[in-house]
Each structure stands twice: as C-alpha cells, then as structure tokens.
Amino acid sequence: MLAVQIKAEAEILPLISSKRLFIFECLGCRDVHYPVEEAAEFIDSLKNEIVGKAALDYLCHREFAHEYVKAYAGEIERAEVVLVFSCGVGAQVVSSLLEDRIVYTCCDTLYVNGFQGLTAKEFNCDQCGECYLNYTGGLCPVALCSKNLLNGPCGGSQAGKCEVDPDMPCVWQQIFDRLAKLGQLHTLERLGTPKNWNVSPTSSPPEKGLA
Ligand code: SF4
Ligand code: SF4
User: Fold this and answer.
1) How many domains does the chain have?
2) pTM reported for the whole predicted model
3) Which helix (H) or strand (E) holds 11?
4) Which end of the chain, C or N, has fewer beta carbons within 10 A?
5) Do 121 and 182 fall into the same domain?
6) Which of 131, 151, 191, 200 to probe ligand 1 with, by most ligand atoms within 8 A of CB?
C-alpha cells in the first residue's frame, strides 16, 4: 500500500503535447492515499485525444495488469503515449509490459511510516517522492542503481553489468537501451537538475526494505 500525489501539470503537459493518450488509473491504494478527485480533474482538463482508459485495483500485480494490457491492446496500439496514475511500482509494471510504447507516470510516490503490505518490499520503488521514471524510460534509478544515481551511468559499468555487483545489470545501461529503442534519447539531456526532496515527507530516501 503506497501513497501517491498527482504531479504538477508543468511536468506532464510538455511531455504529452498533442499526443493521443491511453490512461491507466490504479485505485488499489485509494484507502492509503490516492487523490481520486484530483486525478479525475487532471484527466478531464487534458486537451489531448484520449483513445481509451482503464481503471483497476492493483496495477502493481503484474499478471493482473498483463490481462488489462491484453484486453485494451487495440486502444493502446492507437495511443502515442500511455499515461499511468499510480505509484512507481504500477508505472514500472506498465512500462515493462509495454516496452515499445512511451509510458509516463502522472504521480509522485511518497514514503509513509507503517506497514505497507508486501508491495514496497517486493518491488523496485523506494518511494523517493519526486518520481524520475518519466526521464528514465520507466526504469527506476533510485531503487535499481547501486549508487542511486540520477545522472548515470557512473563509468564503472562493464558489459552491461554493475561495477558494485556484477551479478546485476547496470540499470543506466538499460535506461539508455530503452530510450534508444523508443527514439527518446534526447530525454537524457534533461537530467542534471537536483532532485527535489521536498516532494517527499522525509528529507532523504528511506532505507531499502523499510516499511
Ligand atoms: S523514482 Fe523510483 S523510487 Fe522514486 S518514486 Fe519513482 S519509482 Fe519510486
Ligand atoms: S554500474 Fe550502473 S547500476 Fe552500477 S552503480 Fe554504476 S551506474 Fe549504477
């Protein structure tokens, strides 16, 4: 169970300018904190053509999300961009299921104290606040890079493996490959701005696995 907040329009609108959209909305954590009305207002305010929408519980459940992706395959095919209203886990699941589509998250994922179920421990989101997935091809540099680099790679990557742990892939190599496949390498030019930790109620990222 994770808490999210809707990103500022100023971050999302330039990314989706006049693009045809398909929208996924996850309602599974609305009892923790999912701003249902704010999300609806955001979606209603979009001027883009929306070719389809799906609202479901637990987008973080990969098999479940996969069934929705299959069910809406026609609409998704017509979309130029898939927007996801969910935590970083749900956004990463959709992104991994739609590797040939541009997927953007419209939410930041917040760290909250207390038991959060299995989700936070099992998946690759450290609930860091200002979510970076829109600039990294849907792969999380905070949870998946050994050095939590937001401007990777570090230079130590060898043959696509991480220099800290050669058994794991270098996520920054994966980010580069994914953006290249999508024709979005220019996205990397945006990186360089310091992370806004004020988006998170904590002043620093939580330790991985804390719940
Ligand atoms: S950047 Fe990663 S850790 Fe931060 S909110 Fe997004 S998915 Fe979660
Ligand atoms: S090799 Fe890649 S994953 Fe490992 S620390 Fe460097 S940038 Fe991060």
Assistant:
1) 2
2) 0.89
3) helix 9-16
4) C
5) no
6) 131
Ligand nearest to the CA of 142: 1
What is the rounded end-to-end Cα distance, in angstroms, of the chain?
Answer: 10
Residue 105 beta carbon below 6 angstroms from any ligand 1 atom: no
- Residues 113, 12: one domain? yes
Distance between CA atoms of residues 210 and 202, nearest Å = 13
Per-residue pLDDT of the chain (211 residues; tens, 9 = 90+): 678 999 999 999 999 999 999 999 999 887 778 888 999 999 999 999 999 999 998 898 999 999 999 999 999 999 999 999 999 999 999 999 999 999 999 999 988 766 655 555 567 898 889 999 999 999 999 999 999 999 889 999 999 999 999 999 999 999 999 999 999 999 988 766 677 777 665 545 444 433 3
Residue 188: which domain range?
136-193
Cα of 136 vs centre of ligand 2, distance in Å, is: 14
Same structural domain, 6 and 20: yes
Nearest CA residue ID for atom 7, ligand 1: 88
Residue with tokens 């541009």: 102
Nearest to 211 by CA among 139, 136, 111: 111
Same structural domain for residues 13 and 110?
yes
